[in-house]
């Protein structure tokens, strides 16, 4: 892998304010390139920005007059300044729904909001991260966009590549449900089933990156991961702007790899440093399913490291048993005064129905996890109902219909009024 | 029915610029109320507006500084001026995608755009019309929102009622596919299966409106139809504004009842009259599935009336065999120099895949109909590829996965490089 990535690393890459890659562990800096692990300590690389020269009020105006998608924040992302003119899916600027009905049910008095990312082009937050990876792929001259996936990511990569005119080749376990295969295959890229588990798929992708056959391939969540991950910052930016340029006091975020939660914290910190919001305290809460709760378990046990688990939950989009950013999540939850909690599959389903019934939002299982954890944290006195609270819904219920398959008809009647009255529906 | 509707008719109803109901056939005017048929000639009632006193440039500014949803056009809709502050799903302001890849495939040189209404809250254009019906329901004091439906509308009504805090009671044929039942039931309203066909469901709803049991019920597509239908005007407004306040030269619209097509024409005409766009010529093209093509058949035969058909097509959201607005559609297509055309189920599936492959948009079957008809009209020399053309996608492919169920894996391999190379994927 080293040979390929070094060859593609160049100082002339134009990714806007992205200045270099920097190791989150040891701080070692390398030029922008398709690398993700520190050559010194094997720590994760992330984007280091040069935000110098930004005038706060000029920047705010530029953002507010920008497009109604993530590219309004282009000055804060690893993308060229003309990104909005390029063919991509233009995700983001999804609704921040003031959830007064849900607030009443949960007893929240300080203002409750649902950030509803089911409004993205392929109906999950993955469009945000893939859009960043796509720009990095273009900058590094990659011609194939790739990933390993079991669901949302496959569709997001297939759609983004189609629109951008790149080839896509997505790897999935060969025995995935037919519905998910169709959703990923419809965009016309290559969709390859791997005889093995999701772990086998991942291992194969790492092998392919190091092989000449992988030359010219950008794996959004592997060799483009430092760029990809930054897409989650846009959730923080949008929430703050939609609240009138202020930070929420509490936010509940789902945990899969944990990357999203860490980037939301990074986004809030940047907004403070840039003067776009006041430096008011916020607590970040992580949400997991009980059937895959390694970070929640570590938080409760007071550990700094995360012990891997074998996932067994209906919240498949969160089912990462060995979350790479787990230790960073623990650190952020503790530092901000938040917590990490988990809910059972039954509580997830109840929460999906609660959100649908109160706000007309049909969330995927990951949304059931955040709403369910919010309810539990309030009941346990951990989350303060008198404070402004934002809950993330990162995906769409249409993709996880099985979770609520028990939902059905209230009644079946014959087509006449007598039958209607007998059923007690008036 | 008359007794109930007259009782609820009042001159003090505040629905913004909506001044009265007016018969499209004989022009007879009645006060705003939950009525849909002219008492003189049984013609369809529609909203008559009072747009007097609008200054063009003030109106344009007010729209442009409005919210990123349909309520930016509140001054042109039958809704109170504070509509944006009420709990509703805030649909609209969906993406107008510049479809350069699709344009290349179809040979369009004058600019091709897809208006992608899968971005609405419940992922179909029905959210636009239901949002209008909801405001009318509130104005008339209805406490239950209802409809007959076989799909998209059920979910849109259930979600809108949940968010607005109204009861919902939706009627569907009892033997609908389980997936569609789940999508409609998840919002927690009453979902009633009727033992019979969709026609039986409709007949029963009309009976219920005339019964005391239906007191306080707003049927979005029956007694609230004049308000409901106006929601489709917002498609015209958004397209014109997103094109920089100009009309497209050609637009391809799907036909179910035909209402949407007539309201898009009405919207364009209003924009011209209000001075918001120049009075440039536009052609409106209607699109049907061959398996339910009563309007297309009448257009080709040169008839003014539409002979009902028994639908048999995968495009179920367009499968209305006896379209109420058929004659008006024929009139508009002929008056604007457009046409009505149909495509086979196979062409619909091909078009869904074409749109996904070129633009990363996964459309429901109705979107396959419009894209397929666009291709056919270009091939036949009816649609001019040198002119600016807008194609509507009114729904989401996730809701009609069966249509593309044949789509699948490119290859299945073992998790190693040898197997990858053997499959010829490099």
UniProtKB/TrEMBL annotation, chains A, B:
SUPFAM superfamilies: Tryptophan synthase beta subunit-like PLP-dependent enzymes. It comes from Streptomyces nodosus. Gene3D superfamilies: 3.40.50.1100. Keywords: Lyase, Pyridoxal phosphate. It is an enzyme of class 4 (lyase). Its cofactor is pyridoxal 5'-phosphate. The lineage of its organism: Bacteria, Bacillati, Actinomycetota, Actinomycetes, Kitasatosporales. It holds the Pfam family PALP. Its EC number is 4.2.3.1. The keyword Lyase applies. The modification N6-(pyridoxal phosphate)lysine is found at residue 126. One of its GO terms (biological process) is threonine biosynthetic process. Residues 91-395 form the Tryptophan synthase beta chain-like PALP domain. This is Threonine synthase. Belongs to the threonine synthase family. It comes from the Bacteria. GO terms for molecular function: L-serine ammonia-lyase activity; threonine deaminase activity; threonine synthase activity.
